[in-house]
């Protein structure tokens, strides 16, 4: 990254990213518990797009709501910002409403999430599944590997931490496809924390001792994997990911975005490299952030913004007048 671009990220975009995720979270919060996933997602998308277009940058959405024919706004390849063609070139990965089902049912850990990096810094991941494993900071490099079995990975992490496997907690999406994984993890004695949705928060949880989550395992969306990696780049940790393809259409999507090695195991720094910024605002209460609260005449939000180059993590509590 050039010095000029770095200064722009530092002085302007770091805290501006919080304003963007706040806008999306506030918009989605009006539909918490209403049972309408699409309406909540649409509200968050529209608010995030409007906020992004107010920023001085030449931004390109590399991970968004889908391809252009699938998503009317914030689609992959869409240009955003008020300085297209003249401002700093920024790659953007976003999920205006991480956990749409969570929001619709008023469950925990629904977030508005955003990551930015210098041009070319974020993998342009197709909207397919990704096999994932993640741990927090403090472990020897290479402690996890998707070519190992879940049991082998658990034993390696337990040995490095100096505890028996039964003392570990593994976070896994509660899906039928994970039945064998969950059974294997429990067979070696470790605890399994099942989450209904929101695997970005699940991966980030491995970096926070307060969550008690040691490892994240299982398959989920590839775009969410890149977003989670942007956060881990800022706070430390390890991540391995491998794209999973169910049919030729999905393989074609990967080729469209320049991915030729379909069996590649990606490392953290390959999914999110260079200097990057990660921001998230809580929509509903969760392990990472409190959700949007409405009181007479005002709303409150809680956000986090992180930067890889400095390792800085800022927690931001916002108070917004509603009159």
UniProtKB/TrEMBL annotation:
<dbReference type="GO" id="GO:0046872">
    <property type="term" value="F:metal ion binding"/>
</dbReference>
<keyword id="KW-0119">Carbohydrate metabolism</keyword>
<protein>
    <recommendedName>
        <fullName>Fructose-1,6-bisphosphatase</fullName>
    </recommendedName>
</protein>
<dbReference type="Pfam" id="PF03320">
    <property type="entry name" value="FBPase_glpX"/>
</dbReference>
<feature type="binding site">
    <location>
        <begin position="197"/>
        <end position="199"/>
    </location>
    <ligand>
        <name>substrate</name>
    </ligand>
</feature>
<feature type="binding site">
    <location>
        <position position="129"/>
    </location>
    <ligand>
        <name>substrate</name>
    </ligand>
</feature>
<dbReference type="GO" id="GO:0030388">
    <property type="term" value="P:fructose 1,6-bisphosphate metabolic process"/>
</dbReference>
<dbReference type="GO" id="GO:0006071">
    <property type="term" value="P:glycerol metabolic process"/>
</dbReference>
<keyword id="KW-0479">Metal-binding</keyword>
<comment type="similarity">
    <text>Belongs to the FBPase class 2 family.</text>
</comment>
<feature type="binding site">
    <location>
        <position position="224"/>
    </location>
    <ligand>
        <name>Mn(2+) 2</name>
    </ligand>
</feature>
<dbReference type="GO" id="GO:0005829">
    <property type="term" value="C:cytosol"/>
</dbReference>
<feature type="binding site">
    <location>
        <position position="41"/>
    </location>
    <ligand>
        <name>Mn(2+) 1</name>
    </ligand>
</feature>
<dbReference type="InterPro" id="IPR004464">
    <property type="entry name" value="FBPase_class-2/SBPase"/>
</dbReference>
<feature type="binding site">
    <location>
        <position position="221"/>
    </location>
    <ligand>
        <name>substrate</name>
    </ligand>
</feature>
<keyword id="KW-0378">Hydrolase</keyword>
<feature type="binding site">
    <location>
        <position position="98"/>
    </location>
    <ligand>
        <name>Mn(2+) 2</name>
    </ligand>
</feature>
<feature type="binding site">
    <location>
        <position position="95"/>
    </location>
    <ligand>
        <name>Mn(2+) 2</name>
    </ligand>
</feature>
<dbReference type="GO" id="GO:0006094">
    <property type="term" value="P:gluconeogenesis"/>
</dbReference>
<feature type="binding site">
    <location>
        <begin position="175"/>
        <end position="177"/>
    </location>
    <ligand>
        <name>substrate</name>
    </ligand>
</feature>
<feature type="binding site">
    <location>
        <begin position="98"/>
        <end position="100"/>
    </location>
    <ligand>
        <name>substrate</name>
    </ligand>
</feature>
<feature type="binding site">
    <location>
        <position position="65"/>
    </location>
    <ligand>
        <name>Mn(2+) 1</name>
    </ligand>
</feature>
<keyword id="KW-0464">Manganese</keyword>
<dbReference type="GO" id="GO:0042132">
    <property type="term" value="F:fructose 1,6-bisphosphate 1-phosphatase activity"/>
</dbReference>
